[in-house]
Design a protein that fits this description.
The protein has 14 helices and 16 strands. The protein is an alpha/beta fold. It has an 8-stranded mixed β-sheet with strand order 4-5-3-2-1-6-7-8, sandwiched between helices. The termini are far apart.
Length: about 400
């Protein structure tokens, strides 16, 4: 057995070195673990964190990001490296000293918010090399992101040993252990395991987000512009998903549910959308033809900060398994989440209780983004009556106090 600190030097406490003929007691083992954790973290003074690529995944990474900030010593500089979407959804959280924004094939440009430069892969490698990071922690699983850290010459590269990239990592975290399986466990737990791999305790599994005063002001303008009063409780409905037909809710079902909930719960209803989903959101408003059901797509500017602020104002959120669902969970809102082909266990949450709604068909969960049977009944049969019943139950049970939001003023 080799010493952690070089030949002949052991820092395990009295009697814990090799050849002493004694086993290590539980208390000594705990003491050893604490000492090694302190020393392990002390070897990192500048840490880059490669964030997940999707907005929802970035939300689920917040427990790990919080653990890094609170557990690593105060002098450690943390830099988040991510695409524009994840950085936008995490804006308002005080856990990073700086950020680097990139798109793999982008031409270098200035971002729309805050003037941040958007780097391509080559530019990102140069920026990382210039910063001289001690370590990079990969919350991504791709070969390409592991290659970026290696090309930047970062000495310690920490991530899951998968997708043929093990040889690019200095600190390999096993995908499967006796107690964990990164292919089957919830994403939140998988990210926390990576934080633990560099010596951080990871006990708090709750996701968390914040938003800025400019987001709140934009939400006020949006509601006024589309004709919704801020005096009435707000229901936000999100039917879209960026990746899959088997994650989208049919607009006819959404329209029917919106009208019923607006009338029976006396709510204002806003149909959420991103820039690419305006047409569908506007179509739902047209189908409803109701004075208190309006589309967010009628508003000109649709940044992620607006989505966060509108969700923060909502008394109830009905969403497909997509970014807005994770934002609402992180803001401790009562959420009814509509699942199709994906196993809800993979993205389970640990905040306020979430209502999971699924058809429970024999083919679910298939895990496919395209229905191999050609019908996508997992979402198409999720009709308005089922969703309305779940939404009423969630809304009427949401009077309990929730943990406060992170709101920077």
């Amino acid at each position: 057995m080799r010493s952690f600190f070089g030949p002949g030097l052991w820092w395990l406490g009295p009697g814990n070195g090799p050849g002493n003929g004694q086993g290590i007691t539980a208390s000594r083992q705990a003491s050893l673990t604490r000492r090694l954790r302190i020393l392990y973290k002390a070897r990192i003074m500048k840490l880059a964190v490669m964030l997940p690529n999707w907005v929802g995944d970035a939300c689920m990474a917040t427990p790990a990001l919080r653990a890094l900030r609170t557990e690593l010593p105060e002098p450690v500089e943390i830099c988040w490296v991510a695409r524009p979407g994840p950085l936008a959804v995490l804006e308002g959280l005080p856990w990073a000293d700086k950020t680097l924004c990139y798109k793999p094939r982008a031409k270098p440009s200035r971002g729309s918010s805050g003037g941040a430069e958007v780097l391509n892969r080559r530019g990102l490698v140069r920026a990382l090399r210039k910063e001289r990071f001690d370590a990079i922690l990969y919350l991504t699983n791709s070969f390409s992101t592991a290659l970026i850290g290696a090309m930047a010459g970062i000495p310690r590269r920490i991530g899951y040993a998968r997708d043929y990239r093990s040889w690019l990592l200095s600190d390999r975290v096993r995908v499967r252990t006796a107690t964990a399986d990164a292919l089957k466990d919830p994403c939140i737990d998988n990210y926390l395991r990576l934080a633990q791999a560099i010596g951080c305790r990871a006990d708090d599994r709750r996701t968390q987000l914040g938003f800025l005063p400019r987001d709140e002001a934009l939400a006020t303008r949006c509601l006024e512009s589309i004709g919704l009063s801020s005096d009435r409780p707000l229901l936000l409905i999100n039917t879209g998903a960026a990746t899959a037909l088997t994650k989208r809710w049919p607009i006819e079902h959404a329209a029917a549910a919106a009208v019923i909930l607006a009338d029976e719960l006396d709510l204002s209803v806003i149909i959420h959308c991103g820039p690419a989903e305006r047409q569908n959101a506007n179509a739902i408003e047209d189908l409803c033809n109701h004075p208190r059901v309006k589309s967010m797509g009628r508003f000109d500017d649709l940044p992620l900060g607006l989505s966060k602020a509108l969700i923060a104002r909502s008394g109830l959120v009905v969403s497909t398994d997509s970014g807005p669902r994770h934002i609402a969970v992180a803001m401790n809102k009562p959420v009814v989440s509509l699942f199709g082909s994906i196993d809800p266990g993979l993205t389970r949450s640990y905040n306020a209780p979430e209502t999971i709604l699924t058809m429970g068909l024999a083919c679910q969960p298939c895990g496919s983004y395209d229905c191999h049977l050609g019908h996508a009944n997992c979402m198409n049969q999720l009709d308005a009556s089922r969703v309305v019943h779940a939404a009423k139950h969630a809304y009427r049970g949401s009077m309990a106090a929730y943990p406060p939001l992170v709101h920077l003023r």
